[in-house]
Amino acid sequence: MPYPVYSSQTKDNGLMGYYKDYLYEDAITWTTDGANAGTVNYRAGKFYCTNVCGVLLSNEVTANQMIAEALNNVAKGYVSYVGNPKLMNNVMADIEIMIPTHAEEREKLSVFFRNLDNLITLHQKKFEQLTILKKYMLQKMFPQNGSDKPEIRFDGFTDDWEQRKLSDVVDVRSGRDYKHLEEGDIPVYGTGGYMLSVSEALSDDEDAIGIGRKGTIDNPYILRAPFWTVDTLFYAVPREKHDLNFVYGIFQNINWKAKDESTGVPSLSKATINAVSTMTPDYEEQRLIGEYFSNLDHLITLHQQKCDELRNAKKFMLQNMFI
């Protein structure tokens, strides 16, 4: 039977593939050099390890997840950053950690951290699967390559989509400087997202799509009114009979980097945005498509937030359960 082969921690938790032979069984490994030097893992079962991994074996205390986490909590502090980051075998072997005396307590802690890691992995995989699904559906639910119909549609819709300029779909407006405003509860957004909150709104009651004028021009996102945008971020308000979430899908399907007008800092102009050709169906089909992607985005965000919460919980527990 094939056995897992572990290398660095750059992909799939260090898993490179599978091999017909194995070297170790139920042991603790760490990455010896590179950007992830000092990353420690417990490897259950039989496995093969490449020469960029160190393996810690002991005849006194059975290796488990708890001991790996205790080492992972401190090992980075022993990495040498002279040249390529390294954690040598002799240095790792001399690291001292405090662990419970009783094997039963060690095993219970091991199970706790293993379950926590499994939950993190579960939510991370779900997040990645949904992200891939969204990318696929953005291609299939919007017409591609000059077609006037998408490949996937909701039941009951058969009419051709109509070609439009983005100027017919949205009203592109400019952001402004906010420094004259007082502190408040109106969010201010830039190309990187939320910045701070001020006392006045640039858009009081119209939701929009933010798109960078300078800098990050390929990361559109939805802005919920009331809000203010800085002068490096346009905000595009959907025109009548155009659904916000559907229009957001249009913006995500456009290769904005290809429309960069500068040889330096990436830049867009209103004229460039307005001239982009797109395809749109009637409002009811727009609404259903927009609702589908809104729900998908909500699920993606939930799983990402859950991953962050669990990682923060693990970090807290590692700091407070080990001396």
Description:
The protein is elongated and about 75 Å long. Helix 1 (65-72) packs across helix 3 (103-140) and helix 3 runs antiparallel to helix 7. It is built from seven helices and 14 strands. A hairpin with an 8-residue loop joins strand 3 and strand 4. The longest helix has 39 residues, at 283-321. The strands form four sheets. A five-stranded mixed sheet has the order 2-1-4-3-5. The two termini are 41 Å apart. It is 34% helix and 23% strand. It has helices at residues 65-72, 89-93, 103-140, 166-169, 244-253, 270-275, 283-321, and strands spanning 3-6, 15-19, 24-31, 40-49, 53-56, 162-165, 170-173, 183-190, 193-198, 208-212, 221-223, 228-229, 233-238, 277-280. The model has no long low-confidence stretch (mean pLDDT 92). The protein has 323 residues and is an alpha+beta fold.
Q: What class would the helix/strand composition place it in?
A: alpha+beta
The count of strands amounts to 14
Low confidence ranges:
none
Give the integer mean of the pLDDT values: 92
Radius of gyration: 26 Å
Q: β content, as a range? A: 15-25%
Overall spatial form: elongated
Tell me about the largest β-sheet. 5 strands, mixed
Strand order of the largest sheet: 2-1-4-3-5
Cα separation of the termini: 41 Å
Order of helices and strands: EEEEEHHHEHEEEEEEEHHEH
- Counting DSSP H or I runs of 4 or more residues, the number of helices is 7
Instruction: Kindly state the percentage of residues in helix.
Output: 25-40%
